[in-house]
């Protein structure tokens, strides 16, 4: 037997997931095998990629599962080209393990056509994953249901009744033939068990197969599938399928001694308070909802049919958030859900409302996912939760985007590269630990601390923990903050107080506590993260803009009073920055408007904010004091501009 093909340096697997939850399944398969993996919620910039240079898996969570072929034609080629440029031996178009798709929506065949044109060569297709209860035999897919029993896909109680892509065919080759004209071959489990898998693969390719499907029934066929793809694929092999593809590669790499045995993954531990949202109509999710409601969670039902009207939906999600916060205040866990299984009358009501309104179903589905994401974001931020549960692919993606703190990660990474020891303090201590883990893995020194910046006792505890670990505080980057976008006349006092307490009072408490230690140490650097919203009026920014404006003046006062102690104090005011939040929240019209008004005609990156922070924390900025550094591409500086050429009309 030939020696196994070695693992090269750099990324081993890059992948694009057709929805968020599917993407996270591929990430999990690699990460739980000890292969560091990063999942982006949108195509990353070169700067963002550079920050994760050591990762062996790089993924992008997409939305192709709910999109038409025309959308795929426009959006998938640049994503696949980006993944190809990373040079990984395997690139994966990740689909659901129940293969739900159709010629008109979520077409797996169209995605394969696009990927094959960019990468070339044949395309392995791996859908089965025994660990997930997905089994393929002679090309037919079987899946376990909520009752633990296996069903042929076209008779599966959930997938045969899927609200968008009901599966009426279990033979994946026949199903896929409706979506692509490529010839499809098969390596079956009998050939694998008899040692003829390689020969059957060669026969299929010699016969003109452009896609080759692999049976997976058990651990043996899973590892054999991984072997065939790894040892007989191209230098940059484009593949398609479920997380079974990553599971197969990991199984073979482990059997071949290329990676160590499965590491033990530490759980996150218990959480005193937790909130849940669900946008799924799966029977499995219905069982989970029923179980949760019977064991202490309080259900809050959303009327998804109201999503056909934007204003009505905003009111509905606002109501749900208020009820969820009230439930938390009573000591219980809120569970906000749009339906409890496919037979819930809410599903039929939503369909009827969509038909009656004339609003495209895709638009309504996007609103539902975004609305549930906003509910969770408000609940997590207001109640300062460290743990949340999300069910449903679109809901997961929206909530993850809204909860992302991308610039903080970038600043901590940049300072760590300069040799600083980092303490990441956050109300979400699990997220802080994940960030410090990456810094330590890259050779830095870092520690995570839980803090509620609006609570003086919590801030004091943060400072005490830092001094106990490192003995001093030399630099503070004051970056805690929450957003808000409510018209002035509609702003509630509780929302005003929440934003002010974190963005302004919290900044004051943290800066004061850290400055007292800097005085004892003979000096230091404080960088407050302000915003252009504190310098100019903007719709919906009554509380947020006021807090950031207050922070700019607070910085000036601090600069005057702390200068005698050798403490530099400055602000950074970011403009439009390409954070994960912006990628989710800014539509094409918003981006076009910003790019027109920004002389550099682009969004900034988190790394450019981090570079500014490194400068203000360095000795090179020793005579920069009480200053606000706008990192905005000239947005604040620009005056009136006219027309496409941005020139004044002739007088």
Describe this structure in words.
GO terms for molecular function: ATP binding; kinase activity. This is NAD(P)-dependent dehydrogenase (Short-subunit alcohol dehydrogenase family)/uncharacterized protein YgbK (DUF1537 family). This protein is α/β, with parallel strands linked by helices and 651 residues long. The protein has 22 helices and 21 strands. The strands form 5 sheets. An 8-stranded parallel beta sheet has the order 2-3-1-4-11-5-10-9, with helices on both faces. Strands 13-14-12-15 form a 4-stranded parallel beta sheet, sandwiched between helices. Strand 13 (297-301), helix 11 (310-329) and strand 14 (333-337) form a beta-alpha-beta unit. Helix 8 (219-232) packs across helix 9 and helix 11 (310-329) packs parallel to helix 13.
Please give the domain count: 3
The top level CATH class name of the largest domain: Alpha Beta
The major beta sheet can be summarized as: 8 strands, parallel
Radius of gyration: 26 Å
CATH topological fold name of the largest domain: Rossmann fold
Which architecture name of the largest domain does CATH use?
3-Layer(aba) Sandwich
DSSP strand tally: 21
Assembly category:
single chain
Summed up, the helix count is 22
Please tell me what the overall shape is: globular
| Mean of residue pLDDT values | 87
Question: Termini separation (Å)?
Answer: 83 Å
- Given as residue ranges, the uncertain stretches (5+ residues, pLDDT < 50) are none
| Beta-strand percent range | 15-25%
Helical residue percent band: 40-55%
User: Structural class, from secondary structure content?
Assistant: alpha/beta
The H-level CATH homologous superfamily of the largest domain, spelled out, is: Putative sugar-binding, N-terminal domain
| Order of strands across the main sheet | 2-3-1-4-11-5-10-9
